[in-house]
Amino acid sequence: MKEPKTLLQAIQFYADPDRAFAAATEFRFPNGVHCPTCGRTDVRFIATRRMWECKEKHPRKQFSVKLGTIMEDSPLGLDIWFAAIWAIANDKNGISSYEFARMTGITQKSAWHVMHRVRLAMKVAGMGDGGEFEKMRGVIEADETRIGGKAKNMHKAKRERNVKRSGSHMAEKTLVQGVIQRSSEKALSHVRLHIVNTTSVRALTTFIREQVEPGSDLMTDTLGAYTSLRDAYTHETVNHAAEEYVRGNVHTNSIENFWSLLKRTLGGTYVSVEPFHLQRYLAEQAFRFNERKGTDGDRFRKLASSINGLRLTWKELTGYEDAGQTA
Ligand SMILES: [Zn+2]
């Protein structure tokens, strides 16, 4: 059977348990199998159970390929997980949990859970190889936008829940900050996103300092907050209020274009994207934008390789999360 190229082919491809297990083993242990608890590499493979056993005496002597990944504690098969990873890595319009449940024959609740865990993996995949965190450099554009709203259309109970969770009516619109590294000879442009609670100087500049290598060129609009970054960056501004949009290579068109793209994509769905889920939807969009050059198979492998060490419980998924994390 050939390597899959579409979601349907991927579902068929990984329906074979041996094939799915071999792939999962490679994604989980790219440098060879080892015990997730103690690190021993001379582990015994129990073929009948598709598990390994560690020779050390400690809890969880026997471990599966799912242990220590977003799949840990999940009764769902690897075929379902791979289908979810494929779907989320590649469907630009965002496949719903209802559609996914229909395609795979699992319940909508299970589908929702598996898809949200995969979106968490996407957050790490968007940050660079193996979750390694490399700063952006070169020509950088930074900007903010408000996302959400249409609260009128939102069910009343849901609206009140959002207000209760966030303690503010403002949360119906969420402020998102983005930085984009412009394309260069070496790399395509790529974006990082972040939810901010306030437009305070501190909140906005901290993110830039975390993400961008000192010495880079920083392009923003004339929002005062960014001027305090001039100790570390060459800061240039365009004055949108005065209808100035481009001055030589000084502009914020790349990030503005990204905002348009993001809002178009979320347009049909964001009424149902509650603020505390927005984080992961943003991660999803950033991942696809940053990986736009590759094939569906490339994006699948990239995302599947970041499943290590990521756990997310039902409670963490459904409860309120602190905003202010990097998407
Ligand atoms: Zn061990």
What are the key terms here?
327 residues, alpha+beta, five-stranded mixed sheet, three-stranded antiparallel sheet, binds zinc ion
Give a verbal description of the structure:
By secondary structure, the chain is α+β, with helices and mostly antiparallel strands. The chain is built from eleven helices and ten strands. It has a five-stranded mixed β-sheet with strand order 6-5-4-7-8, sandwiched between helices. Mean pLDDT is 82; it is low at 127-132, 166-171 and 318-327. The site of zinc ion has 7 residues, from loops. Residues 35, 37-38, 40, 54, 56, 58 line the site of zinc ion.
Number of helices: 11
What compounds sit in this structure?
Answer: zinc ion
Give a count of the beta strands, DSSP E runs of length 2 or more. 10
Shape: elongated
Give the helix proportion (percent range): 25-40%
Mean pLDDT: 82
Task: Quote the beta fraction.
Answer: 5-15%
Q: Give the N-to-C terminal Cα separation.
A: 36 Å
Oligomer: single chain
State Rg.
22 Å
